[in-house]
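User: Please run a holo structure prediction.
Assistant: Happy to. Please share the sequence and the ligand.
User: Here you go; the ligand is S-adenosylmethionine.
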Amino acid sequence: MVGELICAMMEGKGRGVIARHSIAASDLLLCARPAVVLEGPPDPEGAPDAARLVPALVQAANAQDVPQIRAALQYLYDGTDASRLQLPDIRTMMNLAKHSSSSSSSSSSSLQEGLQESCCDHDHSSGHHHHHHDSHSHSAAEPAAADADKLTEQQASLLVKYNAFADDYEDLAAAAVRGAAMPHSHVGLWPQFALFNHSCLPNSVHYLVGHAMVVRAVEDVAAGEELTVSYLGREEFAPAGARQAVLQERYGFACGCARCQLESQAPRQLQQQLLDTYRQVMQAPRQLQQQLLDTYWQVMQDLKPRFLEAVEHQDQSNLAAVQAQLQTLEHFLSAALQQHRAVLSDSAVLVLQAAVYDLYELLLFCEQLLPQGNEAESKHAALACIGRCLAILNCVSKGAELHVFLASRLLQHAVDLRGPDSAQAEAAAQLFLEAHRMRYGSQLEQQVQLELMEANKQAAEEFLM
Ligand SMILES: C[S@@+](CC[C@H](N)C(=O)[O-])C[C@H]1O[C@@H](n2cnc3c(N)ncnc32)[C@H](O)[C@@H]1O
């Protein structure tokens, strides 16, 4: 499928990646190794500072024995030079990665190799196609260096500033399946991945397997349509203004994607309400988030079997007070959404709700920490909360890790509450499978599929409250 992508100029965005032919949801788009990558310690310490990539990038680009890296980076930096318009194809990228400074013992797992093979199998073209263009977002600070043979430190800094990618973990389930030790944080530069532009409602998902960057479509994409990824992590769950501020500051562009447009066209009153809700959720209950997380860790570490009981003995009344506040917020927001329901499609409502995703997630956490009524009732309530969160993620964040985790949680609750053979459990299993299909594709061997599902179930236990 990699051969089906074209690099072209996108109005107001510099270059971008478009589909040459139609692409189906869950198709693999890219699996590429980095030009450079640095591993950090496992979370919570986070990924190394991207600035540390600059000297490594200069060194990799100027290494005599691997001119392809220099070509890829120079292309990325300065697409205006006709002599360098030919982007190395995926095979070249794979080969050059063998020589790159980023070799890793963990990168030879069978899952990763499988992914690479599936790329190569589909790559029937001789390389990417792209059109000549004369402006480029990365090179604003200076024209192409006359001595184009060497990538300068200044050029490398610009490349890193706009193109580096960092993550606290590689894909946790894939790491577990391939037997990797504790997954590490990463910061690196993947030249082909860096050609994808951003959307707050992306049609592709991306993640690391070892050092390989995997990109997969999560929507059906028509020929000629742009393929987009989200540059925002958790910050994607914020209103348009907040997202745009981050994108402007970090990447220097004003986002005008479909989600931003939808929000800016929503009735003014509703926009204000979304903003107010977001502020209240993000400001006031920040302590609550911490409190909930602290509670979570405490309970998971030594009191897991008596999870709900233990929480009751700690700060139940405090949590209940916050829960009540959250419920009030949710009530008003839902009334406002209801008021404008006639002009909003189902998915528009979900897109708008994504701006205050934290509200819904905190309600879910409260529900899980503070059971109300009898066990069945509280499970019902939790099931409804999970369903709501999942619907939002299924709309704006398809194939994301959180999407897979919540689908796993929904399945667990449905099985618990209604039994493994119930219609609800079956529907939830279908959602879990679908989230997996988006993230890992539809052509996985059944055994690998089962192992990934089990690993994601475990990871959801550990990482989701
Ligand atoms: C990783 S690069 C993406 C490829 C880039 N367009 C190019 O020509 O090399 C990130 C840069 O692309 C541009 N960009 C990405 N997404 C955009 C969007 N939705 N709207 C406008 N510019 C965007 C910004 O200049 C950003 O700093």
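Residues 12-16, 136-138, 162-163, 194-195, 197-199, 251-253, 255, 257 surround S-adenosylmethionine (CB under 6 Å).
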